[in-house]
From TrEMBL:
<keyword id="KW-0663">Pyridoxal phosphate</keyword>
<dbReference type="InterPro" id="IPR015424">
    <property type="entry name" value="PyrdxlP-dep_Trfase"/>
</dbReference>
<protein>
    <submittedName>
        <fullName>4-aminobutyrate aminotransferase</fullName>
        <ecNumber>2.6.1.19</ecNumber>
    </submittedName>
</protein>
<dbReference type="InterPro" id="IPR015421">
    <property type="entry name" value="PyrdxlP-dep_Trfase_major"/>
</dbReference>
<dbReference type="Pfam" id="PF00202">
    <property type="entry name" value="Aminotran_3"/>
</dbReference>
<keyword id="KW-0808">Transferase</keyword>
<dbReference type="InterPro" id="IPR015422">
    <property type="entry name" value="PyrdxlP-dep_Trfase_small"/>
</dbReference>
<keyword id="KW-0032">Aminotransferase</keyword>
<dbReference type="InterPro" id="IPR049704">
    <property type="entry name" value="Aminotrans_3_PPA_site"/>
</dbReference>
<dbReference type="GO" id="GO:0034386">
    <property type="term" value="F:4-aminobutyrate:2-oxoglutarate transaminase activity"/>
</dbReference>
<comment type="similarity">
    <text>Belongs to the class-III pyridoxal-phosphate-dependent aminotransferase family.</text>
</comment>
<dbReference type="GO" id="GO:0030170">
    <property type="term" value="F:pyridoxal phosphate binding"/>
</dbReference>
<dbReference type="InterPro" id="IPR005814">
    <property type="entry name" value="Aminotrans_3"/>
</dbReference>
């Protein structure tokens, strides 16, 4: 264990910890981090996707420097500032027509989703919200209230109804998963959830923290048809898988739907805290002073976000993510032919998941082996976390600038880590302080 990691435990609270191994870093560049022990680590997590352009990207450094050297205040609450206006104009150009109204800025996916949840109920007068079991929409009281992830220690909203997210692997086929999930929603509408009381349906176009679940073809089109029929707003939470990561700019584009409200976060700031909600004018302008925090819309974070969006466009990072993702996916598929622990490889672009099972026939989750695998990968130089309601899905959300050779380098490390875990060469006692989630 490194010196910095131990020192941290004597001064920093654990309340925000989600730790998988004793990682302590002192720097980073591109897809690599520098450990305080001098090791170079290949980063396949990018801080849960937040470091969308990798570490120390020149475009972000330049934008932040410029914004700070002639600083247009520190907030948009009581004054307009140029970076926020430019960013809003840019975001409006990136969403479908029906969402092209106004933009709200926050600090995180959590405050954004919380704002949307309050706003849709207030603006429509409908008290209910639908979301998916396994969904992670945030870690504040209001965003946990509309989430469905079992690891959360918060209370759900009274008006919330959770429905199962279609899981093609567990159900045996995409068709079976789709039919079952749609039947659930239709049954609810016919019984305890009158659809005319539902303000909005929060969706994730890939359910990331729930296990990197890719929805079956046609599923969200059917959900969209139901929502249109009953006047229910569709909120697409693009916080982790949006902004090019999936191989399309918006992840919902894979589903062939047009949401009413789009939520951006994580990678938007490229490592700085900023989120955005984009939606129709009538809803986004429901009331003044409705949802605000003092340094919301600060020009420094907005300038960083604008640089992120410009870089994604200028460097063709959406196509790049699609290509590098396909390459990484193929490498992971090859690993699955040699490692019986791998039950399923899935995802889109650079949002990939590998589900580990103890037995391919029964699909029994291999949670312990998953925790050991990420620990061993870290020892071998690869940073990778896991997700899933059963804690058994390795998650790949590297920076969009990942190169094909880096993708292969990471896959080779994972190959070795999986072999060591399957061979019983990783000491289980390493996990004592690392419960993960
Ligand atoms: C991480 C995440 C959030 C919450 O974002 P924070 O920045 O942690 O507040 C919301 N939705 C999804 C899909 C996420 O992955």
């Amino acid at each position: 264990m490194s010196g910095l990691y131990a020192r941290e435990s004597r001064s920093v609270s654990k309340m925000a910890h989600l730790r998988f191994f004793p990682q302590a870093v002192v720097g980073g560049s591109g897809a690599y981090l520098t450990g305080d022990d001098g090791r170079t680590l290949l980063d396949f997590a990018a801080s849960w996707g937040a470091a969308s352009l990798g570490h120390a990207h020149p475009a972000i450094r330049e934008a932040v420097n410029r914004a700070l050297s002639d600083q247009a205040g520190a907030s948009y609450l009581s004054t307009a500032n140029e970076p926020c206006v430019l960013l809003a104009e840019k975001l409006l150009s990136l969403v479908p027509e029906r969402a092209r109204g106004r933009v709200w800025f926050g600090h995180s996916g959590s405050d954004a989703n919380e704002t949307v949840a309050r706003m849709v109920v207030a603006a429509t007068g409908r008290p209910r919200i639908l979301a998916f079991e396994g969904a992670y929409h945030g870690g504040t009281v209001g965003s946990m209230a509309i989430s469905g992830h079992p690891a959360q220690q918060g209370t759900r909203a009274a008006g919330l109804t959770l429905v199962p997210y279609p899981n093609s692997y567990a159900a045996g086929s995409p068709e079976a998963a789709k039919d079952a999930a749609l039947a659930d929603i239709e049954k609810l509408f016919a019984t305890e959830v009158p659809p005319q009381e539902v303000a909005a349906f929060f969706i994730e176009p890939i359910q990331s923290d729930g296990g990197m679940l890719v929805p079956p073809d046609g599923f969200f089109q059917a959900v969209e048809a139901l929502c249109r029929k009953h006047g229910i707003l569709i909120v697409s939470d693009e916080v982790k898988v949006g902004l090019g990561r999936s191989g399309r700019f918006n992840a919902f584009e894979h589903c062939g739907i047009e949401p009413d409200i789009v939520v951006f976060g994580k990678g938007l700031g490229g490592g700085l805290p900023i989120s955005a909600v984009v939606g129709p004018e009538a809803i986004m302008n429901h009331a003044v002073a409705f949802s605000l925090q003092t340094v919301h819309g600060n020009p420094v974070c907005a300038a960083a976000a604008l640089a992120v969006l410009q870089t994604i466009e200028h460097d063709h990072l959406v196509t790049h993510a699609e290509r590098t993702g396909a390459m990484l996916r193929e490498a992971l598929d090859r690993l699955s032919t040699r490692h019986p622990l791998i039950g399923n490889v899935r995802g889109r672009g650079l949002a990939l998941g590998v589900e580990l099972v103890t037995d391919r026939a029964s699909r029994e989750p291999a949670a312990r082996q998953t925790a050991l695998t990420v620990y061993r990968a870290f020892q071998l130089g690869l940073v990778l976390y896991y997700v899933g309601i059963n804690s058994n899905v390795l998650e790949f959300t590297p920076a969009l600038i990942l190169t094909e050779s880096q993708a292969l380098e990471g896959a080779a490390i994972l190959d070795e880590a999986l072999a060591d875990v399957a061979g019983g060469r990783v000491d289980e006692r390493l996990l004592v302080d690392f419960a993960g989630w």
